[in-house]
Design a protein that fits this description.
InterPro entries: GLUT, MFS_sugar_transport-like, MFS_trans_sf
Protein name: Solute carrier family 2, facilitated glucose transporter member 9 isoform X6
Radius of gyration: 22 Å
Transmembrane segments: 40-61, 67-91
GO biological process, one term: dehydroascorbic acid transport
Number of helices: 6
Order of helices and strands: HHHHHH
Pfam families: Sugar_tr (PF00083)
């Protein structure tokens, strides 16, 4: 008997894709509402510019120093992280909130056009 009660209290860990998507959208919405769209975009694009500039420098000196390819790799990862923390988050949140979903193969272009004009 104690084993059955213990099994019921443990979380199942089988999260569906819809539940995961809902949790991600909720988290994105909270972050965007807390920080704001403009600071996230400014931070994301500024960080991407800095890391792309560093990547250019590191790629120019890649043949002269043995450990320079590692810094290039770190810059690439930093560019991806910068994009994910700013522009990608805003775009995904805005797309989920402003563009209506089409069910199946039916496209409602007139409805979308009237919503945005």
């Amino acid at each position: 008997m104690p084993d059955e009660a213990h099994e019921q209290s443990e979380p199942s860990g089988n999260e569906t894709s819809e539940e995961r998507r809902l949790r991600q959208k909720t988290n994105m919405g909270l972050v965007i509402e807390r920080i704001g769209r403009k600071p996230l975009l400014i931070f994301g694009f500024s960080a991407m510019a800095v890391f792309f500039s560093l990547l250019t420098v590191f790629l120019n000196f890649q043949d002269s120093v043995m450990w320079m390819p590692y810094l290039s790799f770190i810059c690439i990862l930093a560019v991806i992280a910068s994009f994910c923390s700013g522009p990608a988050m805003i775009y995904g949140y805005a797309q989920a909130n402003e563009v209506p979903r089409c069910s199946g193969m039916v496209n409602d272009w007139e409805g979308m056009r009237s919503k945005f004009t």
